[in-house]
């Protein structure tokens, strides 16, 4: 998806592009799967926060956050979710910023057993989005406008009767990072990552989750 974010004072707003599956009773139920791009607005002159997360089987709490190396409000940029059976890769302008590897065999939940639908939104989250909720939306700046274009999808076909999907053979089904991709993701994470749940020892005093201890760029 190509997105141009809310310009000017965007504090309190969240612009999203994500894929999600949830049960009919609760968007955060035990069947909830989701892969998120969320863009947290800020007061004029301060950078957006790109918030990423992965939910599987109702379990999230896998946030990584970044500042971007460009102004995302002045032009369209491309945000990509690559999700196959082996890993999830988040990309910005075809530069990988995050990889979440399938480690189900080691007990780490990974979305793989149900379909996802595609969503985008622009909503008011000023109770938490900007500087922990300290900066609220200034409604004198409304309307807040984000623009989307050139959406492209390459997807497997879900068959509800068999609870499975069929895919045409293609490289994306096994796509990972080559040496150049690993170099790019190291560059992004060393210079632009501002929060990583895997480094939050206050949040995980008994030890970080299993996937944090493994190679990050499999």
UniProtKB/TrEMBL annotation:
It is found in: Secreted, Cell wall; Secreted, Extracellular space, Apoplast. Gene3D superfamilies: 2.60.120.200. The keyword Hydrolase applies. It comes from the Eukaryota. GO terms for molecular function: hydrolase activity, hydrolyzing O-glycosyl compounds; xyloglucan:xyloglucosyl transferase activity. It is an enzyme of class 2 (transferase). One of its GO terms (cellular component) is apoplast. Contains at least one intrachain disulfide bond essential for its enzymatic activity. InterPro entries: Beta-glucanase-like, Beta-glucanase/XTH, ConA-like_dom_sf, GH16_AS, XET_C, XTH. Catalyzes xyloglucan endohydrolysis (XEH) and/or endotransglycosylation (XET). Cleaves and religates xyloglucan polymers, an essential constituent of the primary cell wall, and thereby participates in cell wall construction of growing tissues. This is Xyloglucan endotransglucosylase/hydrolase. It comes from Linum tenue. The lineage of its organism: Eukaryota, Viridiplantae, Streptophyta, Embryophyta, Tracheophyta.
């Amino acid at each position: 998806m190509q997105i141009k974010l809310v310009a000017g004072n965007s504090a309190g707003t969240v612009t999203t592009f994500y894929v999600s599956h949830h049960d009919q009773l609760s968007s955060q139920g035990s069947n909830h799967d989701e892969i998120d791009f969320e863009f947290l607005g800020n007061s004029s002159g301060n950078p957006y926060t790109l918030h990423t997360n992965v939910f599987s089987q109702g379990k999230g709490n896998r946030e990584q956050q970044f500042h971007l190396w460009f102004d995302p409000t002045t032009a369209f940029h491309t945000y990509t979710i690559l999700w196959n059976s082996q890993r999830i890769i988040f990309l910005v302008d075809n530069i990988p910023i995050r990889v979440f590897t399938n480690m189900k065999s080691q007990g780490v939940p990974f979305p793989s057993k149900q379909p996802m639908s595609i969503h985008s939104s622009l909503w008011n989250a000023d109770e938490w989005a900007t500087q922990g909720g300290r900066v609220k939306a200034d409604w004198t700046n409304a309307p807040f406008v984000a623009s989307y274009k050139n959406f492209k999808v390459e997807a497997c076909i879900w068959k509800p009767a068999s609870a499975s999907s069929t895919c045409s053979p293609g490289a994306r089904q096994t796509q990972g990072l080559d040496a150049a991709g690993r170099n790019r993701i190291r560059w992004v994470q060393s210079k632009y990552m501002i929060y990583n749940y895997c480094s939050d020892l206050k949040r995980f005093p008994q030890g970080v989750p299993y996937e944090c201890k493994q190679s990050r760029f499999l």
